[in-house]
Amino acid sequence: KNLKKYFPIKGGVIQRTVGHVKAVDDISFDIYKGETLGVVGESGSGKSTLGRMLIRLLDPTEGQVYFDGQDITNLPNRKLRPLRKEMQMVFQDPYASLNPRMSVGELIEEPMIVQNTLKPKERQGQVIELLNKVGLNTDARLKYPHEFSGGQRQRIAIARALSTKPTFIIGDEPVSALDVSIQSQVLNLMEELQDEFNLTYLFIAHDLSVVRHISDRVAVMYLGRIAEIAQKDAIYKEPLHPYTQALISAVPSTDVTKKREKIKLKGDLPSPSNPPTGCAFHTRCPKVHERCKVDRPELTDMGNGNMVACHLYTNEQLQRIAE
Ligand code: SF4
Ligand code: MG
After folding, report:
1. Residue 254 has what pLDDT?
2. What pTM did the predictor assign?
3. Fewer CB within 10 Å, N side or C side of the chain?
4. Family assignment (predicted)?
């Protein structure tokens, strides 16, 4: 709720704060139990920062995070520890996120040791079960991460994330570093595991095509804000926000009868240290009007739970003009 993360920019000889990168700039949304919420945006849109704040890997500058109705924003570590096992993250780069000096068995067992709820023998049994669940052989536990391919390493990272029996998993671009053919295998695996373990996912990607299959709803981020958050079908078939419309127009259509014109955006992504006034997208929006330059559009429910932050929809008169 109203999450913000501002990173100070240091400058000058005494390194004082000369500005802020507004990585996440006042974001509110819900994630429902059992769903997959896809979060899409260009690099620098704040999606990783948002994910890290949700599981308290990063403290927000302002705002609250609720987990199962409980405000966890300022929970001390002692009270956070039992919740830590509920929330796990799978990172983009399994090469960097797995300690190369630990065997696969040790990597999967480590979170269970930290949680200290199982006896050593039970932990060993869990390791073997998890390896099988992610499609790896039992003898993989004696090997080291470098002995595996990228896709297999991501399977190891997933098994490690599952080892504390979490209910909520954030995938921070978990398939972005993999070959396209391997991507769908890992996505399918994540879907199977979601069904089996009743997991809730926040799935971060920079590309709308990656989250298409796996998501129930999709949030589109632009410069630290949510431009649109809606059911998957609404996002892909009837995107409302001009930025979503541009992103969708770039996704290759599988339906040849519905060829879309590719919408080209002018200019580059502005710096998050100096975001445009009013609507952050106004410098590149094909439908910009005067109000957009001064007035920040709020995320507004379209009456069906789908929400968009754009003056074309928040003002009836303008909506008619747009039509
Ligand atoms: Fe474009 Fe204005 Fe809507 Fe922003 S508020 S997306 S600039 S039309
Ligand atoms: Mg990122």
Report:
1. 66
2. 0.92
3. C
4. Belongs to the ABC transporter superfamily.
Residues having C-beta closer than 5 Å to ion ligand 2? 48
Closest-lying ligand 1 atom to the alpha carbon of residue 227: 6
Q: Select from 78, 38, 37, 72 the least CA-distant residue to 56.
A: 72
Q: What is the pLDDT of residues 129-173, one digit of tens each?
A: 999 999 999 999 999 999 999 999 999 999 999 999 999 999 999
Pairing of strands 3-11, 168-172: unpaired
| Cα 313 to ligand 1 centroid, rounded to whole Å | 9
Nearest CA to ligand 1 atom 7: 282
DSSP 249-298: HHSPPS-GGGPPPPPPPPSPPPPTTSPPSSSTTTTT-TT--GGGGT-PPP
* pLDDT at residue 221, rounded to an integer: 97
Average pLDDT over residues 64-75: 96
| pLDDT confidence of residue 13 | 81
CATH number at 29-86+166-254+261-273:
3.40.50.300
Ligand 1 contact via 204 beta carbon (within 6 Å): no
Helices and strands per DSSP (H, E), number in the chain: 12, 12
Euclidean distance between CA atoms 232 and 213, whole angstroms: 9
In DSSP notation, 209-235 reads HHHHTT-SEEEEEETTEEEEEEEHHHH
Query: Which of the listed residues 311, 313, 319, 323 should we mutate to test ligand 1's pocket, taking the one with most ligand atoms within 8 A of CB?
Result: 311
C-alpha closest to that of 304 among 238, 222, 208:
238
Residue nearest to atom 6 of ligand 1 (CA): 310
Ligand showing the shortest atom-to-Cα distance for residue 243: 1
Question: Would the pLDDT of 319 be above 70?
Answer: no
Name the helix (H) or strand (E) containing 200: strand 200-205
Percent of the chain residues past pLDDT 70, beyond the cut: 95
The full DSSP string for 122-173 is: HHHHHHHHHHHHTT--GGGGGS-GGGS-HHHHHHHHHHHHHTT--SEEEEES
